[in-house]
Amino acid sequence: MGFEIEVPQQIPIFIIAWLIIVKERWNFAPIGRTGGTMMMGVITVAAQTLGPEEAFEAIEYGTLALLWGMMVLVEYLKDDALFDMFINKFFIQNKNLTPVKLLWMLSYTDGFMSALFTNDTMCIALTKTICYVCTQRGFHPGPQMVAIAMGANLGSAATLIGNPQNAIIAMLSGVPFAKFLLYSFIAMVVCLTINTAALAVWYKADLAENTAFAAAAKEKMAEAGVYGATEGASDESTPLVGGAEPEDLESYVDTEGNKVCCFGPFSKEANQKGFRYCLIGTIVMTLACFLADMDIGWTAAGGGVFAMFLDAVFNHKVPDRIFARVNWELLVFFSGLFIVIEGLQHTLIPGQLLDEVEDLMNVSTVSGVCFFTAIITVGCNIFNNVPLTLLVGLAVSYNPETGRDEKFMESIGNTELAWILLAWVTTVSGNLTLMGSVANLIVAEEGKHYFEMSFMYYSKFGFLITIITLYVGVAIICSMWAMTGESMEN
């Protein structure tokens, strides 16, 4: 098997970038993923793999706009304490919770909200509070932490805004938001139900009340000085939602007596209430625009900007605090990664490698769908799901039959079906092991003071059930595709 390789200098550049992504901080040079990928992006240009203009063109600005807009909307929801109100009502103030009831409520809440507000956000928002609720009530937090991680990944697979790799697919594929939702949402609900039922069986021993572990965890939590907000607590002021920092008074204007445009003045409470309703309306309108197949990147950015405008009008606040909480590092990371991956495409290696498995991965046949799922799953656990999505999505090779270059995703059966399956597999395969996705690691890190979720505690359950949900979801998507009269071929 011979390969034609161009710009070979890009190969070591990609390998170094991959090593940085796989292990964020190497002891001899702890530059981190963001700094590392940006450095390798600059080196890609310095090595003349890409010219400066080609590097700028390689960045998918629509993806960055989508991620930025959704992050801004989520931060405004946190700022308005809507997440806190929801969690208080259904988890903290709910006196009828048992460990199993909590597991089911948590899985569905986590899954559905991850579909709208991204998986990483929900893992941050829920983990500490749910762990605290568990220890206060004598529940073992371990099964609930697994449920948060796996539910977030499964839920985020339902929409094109649920996670970063789906956001990339949204911009590269052109699959309508509503069409993607139609097929992926049902697969998500079914697989989330299977996953939660399996959790309840596998962790049956830990899903008991008044466990000895809970008492030990509560003592450990107190020693570590870790607290979460709970009903009636006066000395525990940590916000429920991670990232909601105390207000910087210097960056705020007192809203007592403010006017709304030329009306008023109104009380501070009235202004905040008006902003809340308008914010919810903005989010609903943003989602409606997604469903109407408007440009997904500009729509998300527009929703974020309009939320800023509403905050200024109603609350007379500048958006500095929101800007400070937006994950700019993620946007910079993606910018560098786009450049590095585009450079690797110029070596012609990805396209030629995928050519070798093109016939095996053809989604127009049952065997092709099975091989597609298996190969993408293995690839995600080698390269990480985001880089793999870019590698597969951008791969181009020469087609001797047409005499022109052709994208790999357009050569393996119906293109839209292939993109939908790619989104499902790259997302759900993150549930295989504890190291399989950033969401899993966030849960382990956020909840470490309550329960140190080990690799084996998670992965013994995660490996088998993920294989099941992967293929069940794929089967549902393909069955629905056939039932709706869609052709399996282009």
What does this structure look like?
This protein is mostly helical and 490 residues long. It contains 21 helices and 2 strands. It has one domain. The two termini are 29 Å apart.
Which keywords apply here?
about 500 residues; mainly alpha; two-stranded antiparallel sheet; 21 helices; 2 strands; about 65% helix; about 0% strand; globular
Topology:
Blueprint: H1 10-22, H2 32-46, H3 52-58, H4 61-79, H5 82-92, H6 99-117, H7 119-137, H8 141-156, H9 164-173, H10 177-202, H11 212-224, H12 268-291, H13 296-315, H14 320-325, H15 328-345, H16 349-357, H17 366-383, H18 385-394, E1 396-399, E2 404-407, H19 415-428, H20 438-446, H21 455-483
Antiparallel strand pairs: 1-2
Helix pairs in contact: 1-2, 1-15, 2-15, 4-9, 4-13, 5-7, 6-7, 6-8, 6-10, 7-8, 7-11, 7-20, 8-10, 8-20, 9-18, 9-19, 10-21, 12-13, 15-18, 17-18, 17-19, 18-19, 19-21
Q: If you compute it from the alpha carbons, what radius of gyration comes out, rounded to the nearest whole angstrom?
A: 23 Å
Low confidence ranges = 227-255
Structural class call reads mainly alpha
What's the structural domain tally?
1
- State the helicity in percent bands: 55-70%
**Mean pLDDT level:** 85
Shape: globular
- How far apart the termini lie comes to 29 Å
Our estimate of the beta-strand percent is under 5%
| Count of beta strands | 2
In DSSP terms (H or I, runs of 4 or more residues), the helix count works out at 21
Strand arrangement across the biggest beta sheet: 1-2
Sheet with the most strands? 2 strands, antiparallel
Question: Helix and strand string, N-terminal first?
Answer: HHHHHHHHHHHHHHHHHHEEHHH
